[in-house]
Design goal:
The protein contains five helices and no strands. By secondary structure, it is mostly helical. The chain is elongated.
Length: 230
């Protein structure tokens, strides 16, 4: 059921990344009324974004293959766990690998869409810079808002994964404490487990801060759009 639910969640974000970067028509500075240093720069930035878009699509395809394998591995490990032929530590590693790829399969399509919007933004800037009098600020602000929304989605999913990592690290620390009472774990190993836990906590706090910053940016772009529509 969990895997089925995940598949349903992935459907809309995968659809967002469906358009191939090869179909994008590059807007050239030389085709506009005037050519400026700014329009040339924006054409260059547009091409860079298209390159990143293409790379992100390839990475998504490769990750999808790994994710399908991770799903199969997880199902097998669940059976082994039930029969007692796999350790809890080994199962946790397999589960964490699956969760990492699960989040990647949500984040990567978002990255694809973000690079697409970046290319669209620079294309608009080429047109605006090369055709004095045209105003594309509203369309640009809307693209920025969409980009921030995607960034918030990415950070939120990363925070979920960080929560999983923190839970696993907490389990390792607790098991380590039990082993220490039996003197079956060295001080150095215990310190490493505690350091791992502290690292996951710092990472989660950093992601929370980034989410708040992105939300503040979203508020700013929303106000700009409302102002431009007046």
């Amino acid at each position: 059921m969990k895997l089925f639910f995940t598949a349903l969640c992935l459907m809309p974000v995968l659809a967002m990344a469906a358009e191939d970067s090869a179909s994008f028509k590059i807007v050239h500075a030389g085709d506009q009324q005037v050519v400026t240093s700014e329009s040339l720069d924006k054409e260059f930035q547009q091409v860079l974004a298209l390159s990143q878009w293409s790379k992100a699509q390839s990475k998504l395809k490769m990750t999808q293959l790994r994710f399908e394998q991770a799903k199969r591995d997880l199902e097998r490990s669940k059976q082994l766990r039930t029969s007692g032929t796999i350790t809890e530590s080994k199962f946790s590693m397999i589960y964490f690998e699956y969760r990492t790829l699960e989040v990647d399969m949500i984040n990567l399509p978002i990255d694809v869409s973000k690079y697409k919007m970046t290319a669209q933004y620079h294309a608009l800037r080429v047109v605006e810079e090369g055709n004095p009098g045209q105003d594309h600020r509203l369309a640009q602000a809307q693209l920025m808002l969409e980009g921030v929304d995607l960034e918030i989605q990415t950070l939120t999913k990363s925070l979920e994964l960080a929560g999983t990592a923190k839970s696993i690290a907490e389990t390792y620390v607790k098991s380590g404490e039990k082993l220490r009472t039996r003197e079956a774990l060295s001080d150095a190993d215990m310190e490493r487990r505690q350091t791992t836990l502290q690292s996951t906590m710092i990472h989660a706090q950093d992601l929370e801060g980034q989410i708040e910053l992105a939300k503040a940016a979203r508020e700013g772009f929303s106000r700009t759009i409302a102002r431009l529509k007046q």
